[in-house]
Every structure is written in C-alpha cells, then in structure tokens.
Write a structure and sequence with these properties.
Number of strands: 13
Distance between the termini: 7 Å
Structural class: mainly beta
CATH architecture: 3-Layer(bba) Sandwich
Length: 207
C-alpha cells in the first residue's frame, strides 16, 4: 500500500492569506522546565495550509465544521491535471470516468513556491458545480489556497459548490500524485464552532 502525503508541512513562516493569523509553534514548557515533558503551543488560522472550508466560512447560515459528515472526506477520488489553465470548468473532465468516485482533486501546478503566497491562481468557474453535482461528486479539492480568484469578494465558486452540496478542500499538494484514481483521507478536526479546519490529507494508491 503506497500512501502519498498531500498536506502542506506547517512551520513558522508558512504562508497564509494576507492579513490572516500567522502560523506559530512554540514550546511553552520544556523538558528542562518541567523535568519530564515538552509541551507546545499552536497559533493559527483555521485556513492555514491544507484545510477544508465549512459553509459557515462564506454563509452565516451555513454548517460549521462539526456539522459536516466525515464520509465526505474519505473515499474514492480522482486526480485530474488542469495545468496551464486560467480557470477550471466542465471541459477539463472530458474523457474522465467519474462513475466510481465521489471526489475530484484538480492538479493545477500553479502554486509553484509553497513558501510564499501566490499572486494569482486559476479558479473554479461556477458552472462546474452543477456539472459535478449531476455526476454525483460531493467534494472538490484544489492545490491552491482558494477555489475562487484571490481578489474575489463575491466568491462565486464557493457559493455555487455549496448550492450543489459539494464540500471544499484547499491547499493540497499534488506534486507526487500522478493523475488517476486513489482513496482520499482528509478528515477535519472536530471543531464545533469553526468555519474551517486544517487536515492531514493523504492519497492511497488503489491496488
């Protein structure tokens, strides 16, 4: 069984959305202080690195993280290459068999330097959401910090995906994942009131 880690490593200096809470890890207690253990402290945004969005992130009436069904984050997925595209639409799934999967992960390779926040990214077009819904897809993932343009206030893709009951996984790292079929595991933390959650996302190659 081959496991491919598609999570961004988190460290002091991990790029975050401009103006958002920087990631920080520090030792509050050291083994020298306590005589027995090191104890660390984390400070971070819920949207740091590889993470999922809850609908509450962009809809005040939307579900929070703990309201979302865990089965959406586990199961058959397909990685689809959409390199050199300005936006992502139904045409990128031409010839892709979606009958055996519920999750689609788009590999854009547009975020080259994971040590700095990108200046621009390709985005998902709102029309893709209804197409995916008709195909039975209930989760979309991107190797980008957002499914929408970085300067968008309307968040058309977020809202269209939500309207079609499709959950969102952002910031995955697909450099080691060739296009094809996998099992995805990307469960969020049980954060009762949260609008998002970091995840440890992995792909398992099918036998």
């Amino acid at each position: 069984m081959k496991i491919i880690d598609i999570s961004q490593p988190l460290h002091n200096g991990t790029p975050v959305w401009p103006g958002d809470t920087p990631f920080s890890f520090s030792l509050n207690w050291t083994k020298e202080d306590t005589g027995s253990v090191n104890v660390g402290q984390l400070t971070m945004s819920a949207h740091t690195g590889t993470h999922v969005d809850a609908p509450f992130h962009f809809d005040n009436e939307g579900n929070r993280i703990l309201d979302l069904p865990l089965d959406r984050y586990i199961g058959p997925a397909v990685v689809v290459s959409v390199g050199h595209s300005e936006s992502i639409g139904p045409e990128h799934l031409t010839g892709i068999d979606l009958t055996s999967v519920k999750k689609v992960l788009f590999k854009t390779d547009a975020w080259k330097d994971k040590e700095s926040f990108p200046e621009s990214i390709p985005s998902i077009r709102a029309e893709l959401a209804h197409f995916l819904k008709e195909k039975g897809i209930h989760l979309v993932g991107v190797d980008l910090p957002s499914v929408d343009p970085l300067d968008s206030k309307e968040l058309d893709a977020h809202h269209a995906l939500h309207k079609n009951d499709i959950l969102i996984l952002e910031g995955i790292v697909l450099k080691d994942a060739v296009p094809g079929y996998y099992e995805l595991y990307a469960m969020p933390l049980p954060l009762k009131e949260a609008d998002g959650s970091p995840v440890r996302a992995v792909l398992v190659e099918r036998e």
